[in-house]
C-alpha cells in the first residue's frame, strides 16, 4: 500500500500540478492563435515575466501576506496579472499590430514573436540575474501530510500549500473562462472572430477590442501560471525554456484554437511527463516473490530519466502532428 501512496504523490499529485500549469499556458497560446492566427512563441516568457513581477512585489512588501493569512506572492498576484496583461497589450501594439496592418503572412509574425522572446529573456536576465529565487520571502511553505486510515499504510499523501492554491485558482479560472466565452457578449464576439474574422468585422464587431481582450486574458493567465509554478518550486529566469515546448504540445494535442482542448492537452502532457519519469519498479516490488528467480526487477524502471523528460512533450507533439493534426478536439491545423 505504501507503494500506492508513492504513486499518488509522484504521479497523481505531481501530474495534476504540471497539467494545470501547462493547461493555463496552453489556453493563452490557443486563444492568441484562434484570434490572430499565429503561434506566439513569447508566451512562455510572459509566464516568466508575471512570476518576476510577483517576486519584485514580494521583495518590496514581504509581510503583506500575513495580514490575510496567505503567501505574499498570492496577495501580489492580481497586480502582477494586471501588469502582465498591460505588457501583453503593449507588446502587441508595438510589434505585432504594425505587422498585421501591413498584411504580412503569419510566419512573419511568428518570427517577430521569436524576436520578442529574445528581448524578454534578455531583460529578465538583466534584472533578475541567473540564479533561482524562492517566492517565499518572509513565510515558510506549508506542507500538508494526509494520513490514510489503513494499517498497511505508513506513508502520508503529501500536498503543499501552493499546490492547494493552484488547484483552487485553476478551477476558478476555467469556470470563469467558460462563463465568459459562453455567456458574455465579448466572449461570443471572440468565438465569432475565431470562426471567421472577416465576417465578424463585417457584422460590426470591433476586432481591435477583441484582440486587446485576448491579450488581457492570455497575459493574466500567463502571470498566474508562472507565479503558481514558481511558488511551488522556485523562480528561475530561464523558466520559459522548460515551458515553451510543453505548452505548445498541450495546445496542439488538445486542438489549436480550442480553449477546452488546451485544458485537456495540458493534463495529457503533464501526466505523460510524470508517468514517463516514474520509477515503475516501486509498484512492482510487492510482486517480486511471485516472479521466477531469474526474473529480477531492476532498481530503476522509468521510461526516461528526469533530465530527459523534456523529450516527452516533443514526442507527443510529433506523434499528434503525424497521427491527428487537428488534435483531440479537432482544432485548427498549424
List the helices and strands and how they pair.
Layout lengths: L1 H35 L6 H18 L11 H30 L4 H23 L14 E4 L10 E4 H23 L1 H11 L1 H6 L4 H26 L6 H16 L4 H19 L3 H4 L26 H13 L11
Antiparallel strand pairs: 1-2
Defining traits:
two-stranded antiparallel ribbon; 2% strand
The major β-sheet equals: 2 strands, antiparallel
Structural class: mainly alpha
Oligomeric organization of the protein chains: single chain
Low-confidence stretches: none
Average pLDDT score: 88
Number of DSSP E strands: 2
Kindly estimate the percentage of residues that lie in beta strands according to DSSP. under 5%
Helix content: 55-70%
Write up this protein:
By secondary structure, the protein is mostly helical. The chain is built from twelve helices and two strands, in the order H-H-H-H-E-E-H-H-H-H-H-H-H-H. It has a two-stranded antiparallel ribbon with strand order 1-2. The radius of gyration is 21 Å and the shape is globular.
Amino acid at each position: 500500500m505504501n507503494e500506492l501512496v508513492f504513486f499518488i504523490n509522484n504521479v497523481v499529485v505531481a501530474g495534476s500540478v504540471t497539467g494545470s500549469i501547462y493547461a493555463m499556458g496552453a489556453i493563452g497560446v490557443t486563444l492568441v492563435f484562434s484570434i490572430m492566427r499565429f503561434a506566439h512563441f513569447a508566451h512562455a516568457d510572459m509566464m516568466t515575466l508575471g512570476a518576476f513581477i510577483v517576486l519584485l512585489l514580494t521583495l518590496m512588501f514581504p509581510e503583506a501576506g500575513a495580514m490575510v493569512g496567505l503567501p505574499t506572492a498570492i496577495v501580489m498576484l492580481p497586480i502582477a496579472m494586471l501588469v502582465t496583461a498591460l505588457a501583453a497589450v503593449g507588446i502587441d501594439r508595438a510589434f505585432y499590430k504594425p505587422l498585421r496592418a501591413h498584411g504580412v503572412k503569419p510566419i512573419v509574425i511568428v518570427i517577430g514573436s521569436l524576436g520578442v522572446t529574445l528581448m524578454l529573456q534578455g531583460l529578465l536576465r538583466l534584472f533578475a540575474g541567473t540564479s533561482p529565487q524562492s517566492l517565499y520571502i518572509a513565510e515558510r511553505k506549508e506542507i500538508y501530510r494526509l494520513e490514510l486510515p489503513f494499517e498497511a499504510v505508513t506513508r502520508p499523501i503529501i500536498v503543499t500549500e501552493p499546490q492547494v492554491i493552484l488547484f483552487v485558482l485553476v478551477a476558478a479560472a476555467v469556470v470563469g473562462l467558460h462563463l465568459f466565452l459562453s455567456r458574455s457578449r465579448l466572449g461570443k464576439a471572440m468565438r465569432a472572430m475565431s470562426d471567421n474574422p472577416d465576417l465578424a468585422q463585417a457584422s460590426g464587431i470591433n476586432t481591435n477590442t477583441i484582440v486587446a481582450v485576448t491579450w488581457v486574458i492570455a497575459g493574466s493567465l500567463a502571470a498566474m501560471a508562472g507565479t503558481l509554478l514558481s511558488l511551488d518550486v522556485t523562480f528561475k529566469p530561464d523558466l520559459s525554456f522548460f515551458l515553451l515546448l510543453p505548452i505548445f504540445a498541450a495546445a496542439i494535442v488538445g486542438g489549436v484554437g480550442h480553449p477546452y482542448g488546451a485544458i485537456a492537452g495540458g493534463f495529457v502532457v503533464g501526466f505523460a511527463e510524470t508517468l514517463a519519469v516514474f520509477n515503475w519498479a516501486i509498484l512492482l516490488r510487492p510482486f517480486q516473490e511471485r516472479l521466477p528467480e531469474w526474473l529480477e526487477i531492476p532498481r530503476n524502471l522509468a521510461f526516461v530519466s528526469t533530465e530527459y523528460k523534456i523529450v516527452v512533450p516533443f514526442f507527443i507533439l510529433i506523434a499528434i502532428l503525424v497521427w491527428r493534426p487537428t488534435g483531440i478536439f479537432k482544432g485548427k491545423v498549424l
